[in-house]
Design a protein that fits this description.
With 605 residues, this protein is an alpha+beta fold. α4 packs antiparallel against α10.
Length: 605
C-alpha cells in the first residue's frame, strides 16, 4: 500500500506543537467544525452506516461531512494479526492512516476498489488473498484519538525524531540525500554493494539499527543504507515520495496521507472496525488482465513503427552457418522425452511443429478445431523445436511461442490441455510471409479460395507498406466511426453462409466478398479478415517470424491449412504427437503478477 501501509488523508493544522526544548511534538488532526469529542464519535458511527449502505445520501438532503475522523485498512489471517493497526506486536511505531477525504472515497466501492484506492497494489492483494489467506478490516476512529504527521519528508523526520530517538541522529546525517535522491537511485547504489533489491528485503534480514550504528562509527554509512532501514523496519516503501500524497504503482496520485502513532487496536478509544471482506481471485485477475491488455494495445504503435528497423538489424547480423540435421518426427520426440540437446554446430531441418489445445477429444481431430472456424493454422519451424529441447517447461514453451499468459490462464480455467504435434515439412506448409498468404488462402477456403486470394493479392502492396495501427485507424463502419479489430475478434462468428454486419464488424469471408462485390472493400477490411479469419494479429510482421509485444523477434513461423490428422500421413512416421504437460494456475498467476508489476512501474516512469 502507499508508503508501506494503507494510506489516506485528513485536513489538519500544520502548526507543530512544541514540548521540551529541542523536541518536536506530533501534529494533531484538528477540525474547527467539530465542536466536541462527541461530534467525532457520532461521525464514526454515521460513517459506518454510510459504508454499509454504500451511499452518502443524508436524510436532510445536505452533504455529509466526515471531518474529524480517520482510519486505516488492516489485514491478516488470524486475530493476532489485528493486535495493532499494522499487525501483531512488536510492530513499527508509525502507521500510515487515511483521513476524512480518503474514507469518503471508499463509500460505495467494492473491496478491491477500496484497496486499490488507498494504494494497495493488485500484486500485493493477490498474494495476500491466495498465499496468506488474508481478510481486510477498516478501522475508523476520531482523529483526536491519536497523533499524526503529514506524510512529507519533513513530517517523516519529525515522526522519527519523536518515535525513534535512537534512529534520528542517523537519519539527520543523510536527510538531504534522502529527500533529493529517488528510491530507484538509492536502491541501485545499495545493490552495487552486493545487497538484494530493496523490494526483496524481508524484515530483520539485512539492515538493523546495530549495523547502521556500526557503519556510522566507521564512517561508511550512506543515505542508501538508511533508506534500506526505513524500507525494512518502518515500511517506508518505494511509493513514498514525501509530498504528502498517496502514489499508486502506476504513477497516479491519490489523496493526502499521514503517519500516525501506531497503537494496539484495543487501546483505540471510540473506534469501530468494519470488515471489508476480500476481493475474489477472479476480480483481482480481471483487473490485472485489463491493465495488461490496455498497455499492450497502447504499445502497438511504437512496436509497429520500430518493427522495420528491428527486422533490418536482424537481417544484417546473420548467424554463422551450421550443419543441417535431418531427423524424423519420432527421433525428435525421443530427444524431447530424454531431454537431449542437439549436437554442437548442428541445427534441425525438415520438421515443423504445432501446439494443439482443447478440453475434449474432438478438439484433437485436426490441427485445430474442425468446426470451420479455423481454416488456417500457425506452426513453428525447426528453430522452435530446437528451443524446446533445451527447455521443456510447459509454461516456457507456450510463452516462447507467443501465447499470452492471460489467455493461458483463461484456458486453464476451462480445463484446456496442450499437446505438441511434430510432422515432416510438406509443400502445404509455407513460411508466414506476406507473399505466401494468397496461395495459402486459395488452398484453405475451397470454392471461395480463388476469389479471396485475388482480393488479398490486390491489396497486398498496402498490407506490406502500412502498419496494423494505420489500417486499424481506417477500419470504420458506414457512419465513419472507427471500429476496434480486437473487439470485433471477440465476437462469435455468425452461422455459416450468413452475414452479420453490426458494428464492430467481424470480417468473415462472406462479408469481405460482399464488400468487394459492392466495390467498397478497403485494405483495412482485408487486414481485419486476416486477423479474424487467419489469426494474423497486430504482432504479425509478414517476415516469417514471431514477435513479442516489445518488438523482440522470436522463432520462425509457418502457415498451413487446418487438416484432419488422418490426412497428415502415417502416424508415427510422418507425424507424432506428445502431451507437453500442463502449466499450473499458480505459475500463470505468478507470471501475470510479475507482468502487471512491470507494466505498472513502466507506466510510473
Amino acid at each position: 500500500a502507499m508508503g508501506g501501509g494503507a494510506s489516506a488523508s485528513a485536513k489538519h493544522e500544520q502548526s507543530p506543537k512544541t514540548g521540551k526544548a529541542g523536541d518536536i511534538a506530533p501534529m494533531m488532526f484538528k477540525d474547527s467544525t467539530v465542536d466536541s469529542k462527541r461530534g467525532s464519535i457520532d461521525k464514526v458511527f454515521l460513517y459506518q452506516r454510510c459504508l454499509i449502505k454504500g451511499s452518502l445520501d443524508a436524510a436532510s438532503g445536505r452533504e455529509l461531512s466526515f471531518k474529524g475522523i480517520c482510519g486505516r485498512i488492516c489485514h491478516g489471517n488470524s486475530p493476532g494479526d489485528f493486535e495493532t493497526l499494522i499487525g501483531p506486536a512488536p510492530a513499527p511505531k508509525l502507521a500510515f492512516t487515511i483521513g476524512s477525504d480518503g474514507l469518503k472515497d471508499l463509500i460505495g466501492k467494492s473491496s478491491l476498489e477500496m484497496l486499490l484506492s488507498v494504494g494497495y497494489t493488485a500484486l500485493y492483494i493477490y498474494r495476500s488473498i491466495v498465499k496468506d489467506g488474508c481478510s481486510f478490516v477498516l478501522a475508523v476512529m476520531p482523529a483526536d484519538s491519536g497523533s499524526a504527521w503529514p506524510a512529507t519528508w519533513d513530517g517523516l523526520f519529525e515522526a522519527i525524531r519523536s518515535e525513534y530517538p535512537d534512529v534520528w541522529p542517523l537519519v539527520k546525517a543523510v536527510q538531504q540525500d534522502l529527500q533529493t535522491s529517488s528510491f530507484e537511485e538509492l536502491e541501485q547504489a545499495y545493490m552495487q554493494e552486493g545487497w538484494p533489491a530493496l523490494r526483496a528485503i524481508k524484515k530483520g534480514t539485512h539492515i538493523t539499527l546495530e549495523r547502521l550504528l556500526e557503519m556510522n562509527q566507521v564512517g561508511t554509512m550512506r543515505a542508501y543504507h538508511v533508506r534500506a532501514y526505513l524500507h525494512e523496519n518502518m515500511h517506508i516503501r518505494a511509493n513514498f515520495l514525501g509530498d504528502g500524497f498517496t502514489w499508486r504503482l502506476n504513477g497516479e496520485r491519490g489523496p493526502t496521507e499521514y503517519l500516525s502513532r501506531n497503537t494496539t487496536c484495543y487501546e483505540v478509544r471510540d473506534a469501530i472496525f468494519c470488515p471489508l471482506g476480500s476481493p475474489t481471485v477472479e476480480e483481482v485477475i480481471k483487473y490485472m488482465c485489463e491493465a495488461l491488455k490496455e498497455e499492450q494495445r497502447a504499445h502497438e504503435l511504437e512496436q509497429q513503427h520500430n518493427l522495420a528497423s528491428v527486422v533490418q538489424e536482424l537481417e544484417v547480423g546473420e548467424h554463422p552457418p551450421t550443419k543441417a540435421l535431418n531427423a524424423t518426427p519420432l527421433e525428435y520426440l525421443l530427444w524431447l522425452q530424454t531431454h537431449d540437446e542437439l549436437p554442437q554446430g548442428a541445427h534441425l531441418s525438415g520438421l515443423c511443429g504445432r501446439i494443439c489445445r482443447g478440453s475434449h477429444s474432438d478438439s484433437f481431430r485436426g490441427l485445430a478445431e474442425m468446426d470451420g472456424t479455423r481454416r488456417i493454422v500457425f506452426m513453428f519451424g525447426p528453430d522452435g523445436l530446437a528451443k524446446f529441447l533445451s527447455n521443456s517447461d510447459p509454461l516456457s514453451i507456450l510463452l516462447g511461442l507467443g501465447y499470452d499468459v492471460m489467455f493461458l490462464y483463461e484456458e486453464l480455467m476451462k480445463g484446456t490441455v496442450f499437446e505438441l504435434v511434430v510432422f515432416k515439412e510438406t509443400k502445404g506448409v509455407r513460411q508466414a510471409i506476406w507473399d505466401n498468404l494468397p496461395g495459402i488462402v486459395q488452398e484453405a477456403f475451397g470454392d471461395l479460395g480463388g476469389e479471396l486470394s485475388a482480393i488479398i493479392m490486390k491489396h497486398l502492396p498496402d498490407l506490406k507498406a502500412r502498419s496494423f495501427h494505420d489500417l486499424q485507424h481506417e477500419y470504420t463502419d458506414d457512419t465513419g466511426a472507427i471500429m476496434s479489430m480486437h473487439d470485433a475478434r471477440s465476437k462469435p462468428p455468425p452461422p455459416a453462409g450468413q452475414i452479420e454486419d453490426s458494428s464492430p464488424w467481424r470480417m468473415t469471408e462472406e462479408l469481405l466478398l460482399k464488400r468487394e462485390r459492392e466495390g467498397t472493400c478497403r485494405a483495412a477490411d482485408v487486414r481485419a479478415f486476416l486477423y479474424h479469419a487467419l489469426n494474423l494479429n497486430n504482432l504479425y510482421s509478414g517476415d516469417g517470424y514471431t514477435y513479442t509485444h516489445d518488438g523482440k523477434r522470436g522463432i520462425s513461423e509457418y502457415l498451413a491449412a487446418n487438416l484432419p490428422r488422418k490426412e497428415l500421413g502415417k502416424a508415427g512416421e510422418d507425424w507424432v504427437n506428445c502431451p507437453i504437460g500442463a502449466t499450473t494456475v499458480d505459475q500463470c498467476m505468478s507470471e501475470i503478477c510479475s507482468a502487471y508489476e512491470r507494466v505498472a512501474r513502466k507506466t510510473r516512469k
